[in-house]
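Data card: per-record layout.
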Amino acid sequence: MKTTPLPQESEQDYGQNPTSIRQTDKYKSEYVHGFVEKWDQLIDWKARAESEGSFFIDELKKRGAKRILDVATGTGFHSVRLLAEGFDVVSADGSPQMLAKAFHNGTNHGHILRTVQADWRWLNRDVHGKFDAIICLGNSFTHLFSEQDRRKTLAEFYAALRHDGVLILDQRNYDAILDEGFSSKHTYYYCGDNVKAEPEHMDEGLARFRYEFPDGSAYHLNMFPLRRAYVERLMREVGFQQIHSFADFQETYRTDDPDFFIHIAEKRYHDEPEDSKVSAPPAAPTGAAVKPKL
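The structure for this 294-residue chain is written out next.
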């Protein structure tokens, strides 16, 4: 049977007013072939594995999770790591370009990825069965621009989990960027040498990031700047019982400000649910300011 090759677009198109593009479906055309081919330079698999350590593996094993749905597979970094650790993984993404690259990376590491192209808003239409855990990593949830899309997506995640399943979702520390300005050492998520990932425009409804590579090429992503408390509230309202939030893989904040937050939302119901376990810096005196990667 003859197969149709994926389109090989290399240029992104945001029209005359890039900051006006604030639609969920835009990501499908943002991940053009040229950008996807350079994505692994941005995250650097070896450096990222060293910076993450075994955080996600440990959290999944702690909960007895075996069947994992990676809904933001990207180029396959987490899917491949989990397969190497013996997990049963299904790899989903909305971008066919990313899935093709992930499958290629998987074979290079000795694994055959089970890939599914899926829109999160209709996840259970495209991905069947129940999972012990869903991971949505790489600041991917920020591609959803409307609250309706975010609620629908979280509901789909919830429905795809077993009764005691867990959702692990990360996001940039947009609170700090919006309130204090951008500052990142790329310590945890974006580890590539000589690769820049910085905001070009920020407001309460748009985080437009520019990604610049050593060869001089540059790409952009338009994302929604999610505030931490807002994401946690949506998770609770959808039905998740407990939410543990980490800052750069720690349950207590580092001395400087975290680049990312990681939320672990548990579906299991407890008769006496404990308070949401969210690490936060000490409260500042009245009138004083609290000092505060995709």
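Known properties of this structure: Residues 24-278 form a domain with the Rossmann fold fold (CATH 3.40.50.150). Residues 147-160 form the longest helix (14 residues).

See the next section for split statistics.
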